[in-house]
């Protein structure tokens, strides 16, 4: 599946998706329509970095 740009469509609320930020960092996050915010358990993800694109998959955050 190809990545979808954030300005085209947002994912279903509360579903884990693969994201790529504007700085190029890749991670897993959830989008919440109610608050219009992205949530992630990834401690490496910078709070100021914006999501540029996303895609559905069996996305799992793995510990290094």
Beta-strand percentage? 25-35%
Radius of gyration: 11 Å
Main sheet characteristics: 5 strands, antiparallel
Task: Give the total of beta strands.
Answer: 5
Going across the biggest sheet, name each strand in turn: 1-5-2-3-4
Distance between the termini: 25 Å
Low-confidence stretches: none
Structural class: mainly beta
Helix and strand sequence: EEEEE
**Count of discrete structural domains:** 1
Choose one word for the global shape.
globular
Descriptors:
single chain, 64 residues, mainly beta, 5-stranded antiparallel sheet, 5 strands, 0% helix
What is the structure about, briefly put?
This protein is an all-beta fold and about 60 residues long.
Walkthrough of the structure:
By secondary structure, this protein is mainly beta. The chain has one domain (4-55). Helix content is 0%, strand content 34%. The protein has strands at 4-5, 17-21, 26-32, 37-39, 51-55. A five-stranded antiparallel β-sheet has the order 1-5-2-3-4, with no helix packed on it. The chain is globular. The protein starts with a strand and ends in a 9-residue tail after the last strand.
Produce the secondary structure layout:
Elements: E1 4-5, E2 17-21, E3 26-32, E4 37-39, E5 51-55
């Amino acid at each position: 599946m190809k990545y979808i740009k954030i300005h085209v469509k947002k994912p279903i609320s509360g579903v884990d998706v693969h994201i790529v930020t504007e700085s190029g960092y890749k991670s897993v996050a959830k989008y919440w329509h109610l608050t219009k915010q992205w949530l992630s358990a990834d401690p490496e993800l910078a709070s100021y970095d914006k999501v540029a694109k996303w895609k559905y998959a069996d996305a799992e955050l793995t510990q290094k």
